[in-house]
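User: I'm putting together a small comparison set for a docking exercise, and I want a reference complex before I start. The sequence is below, and the ligand is zinc ion. Could you produce the 3D structure with the ligand included, as structure tokens?
Assistant: Of course. I'll restate your input first, then give the structure tokens for the complex.
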Amino acid sequence: MKPKMKAAMVLRFGEPLEFRECEIPAPGPGQILVKTEACGVCHTDVHAAKGDWPMKPALPFIPGHEGIGVVVAMGREVTAVKEGDRVGVPWLYSACGHCEHCLSAWEAVCAEAEFGGYTRNGGFAEYILADPGYVAHIPSGLTSTDAAPIICAGITTYKGLKETRAKPGQWVAISGVGGLGHLAIQYAKAMGLLVCAIDVDGGKLTHAKRLGADLVINALEADPVSAVRDGTAGGAHGVVVTAPSLSAFKQGVGMTRKRGTCVLIGLPPGEFPTPLFDVVANCITIRGSFVGSRQDMAEALAFAAEGKVKADIELQPLSAINQVLERLEHGKVASRVVLDFAR
Ligand SMILES: [Zn+2]
Ligand SMILES: [Zn+2]
């Protein structure tokens, strides 16, 4: 009999995940097997399990794209990692490696990209098959539970900040101090930027101050657009909108300084009207940003390994996954939930 592993699987969209004992997959040529130590739970997992997005995963599948663990077996022709290495299996599971986007280090938009916990089985299981060319290399000194949120939420916010092109000493406005925003504040401070944090929750803004925000604005108490413009003498050089809200997108453009860049990383459904006159006359750039490259991943992890960025995490066992997904869906997760496989 082949050895088995526990996994939480989506058998039908919109139903709770089912716990199954399945065979531990054997790594084929060019593949590795990772024994999971931790896996973060992301809002994308909620969408994946419900089949919310136009391109749906094939059923059944194992969600989870923040899995961290140790390489325990390798197929033939693997040279990029060795047994015992600690790696992360991220959303960008693999890409073609030779299209125009891959060749210019934009593999996240490769048309042939595969996605962890979506088009490939992910980290809500005791073992994960991975592509050694695309795993994250976890620095020693960074625990697996601390590393987990960095390989999705961390890289997404770090790349979003880079895409604002804001330079040290300039202002960035971070709209939304949730799972993404609390990391964005820390990355921005570590990058030498002045930070203005915007939210509608006073407790989150107090936390933003603790994390180093130079200016905090409660969007329920003041018009956030004029408050940012006043507080930064003309608007933020870079704006990162993490809140999945259309009004936050619209406000984000209004907060952007002349010749500044507003980067959107939240994913609310729908469309938002663009104030064309302001965008054109003020030479404003509106830019979407989606995860990041493998180099961005290494940089995002390095900040965490140096202790400059740390996600607020809540540890739970794999067996709690359905309650965690339900809480996420209803906005009842204050920080980032990480499944701890040592539990
Ligand atoms: Zn994610
Ligand atoms: Zn490609």
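The chain is about 30% helix and 25% strand. The domain at 4-138+312-340 is CATH 3.90.180.10 (Quinone Oxidoreductase; Chain A, domain 1).
User: Thanks, that's exactly what I needed.
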